[in-house]
Amino acid sequence: MVALRRDVSVTTSFAGGYQEDGFFSFTLSAPLAGRNEVKWITDAIILGAVLVVVSVQDPRDARSRIHAQFQTRGATAAVTSTMDGCLAAATANGGDRPQAR
Question: pTM of the predicted model, to two decimals?
Fold first, then answer.
């Protein structure tokens, strides 16, 4: 998964799969404390990333991939609010939230 804002690139695991309706869904998760790949993605969106590019590789077949791109226009407020809620739940974290531009 890549969040494009000065080419932030992260590799992380996630859960997901094809749904009955033919769509593919995935979920990212990370510990509340400390820096991690998922936080790098949310930070990039908060700071103004314009595009998130996702590339999912089948763990059994390296040649089998799903590629997707997501525009982040309008996502800053929702991601900021979500991360504020996460950070409030982890007050012992001491982590900092980037300021939106």
Answer: 0.65
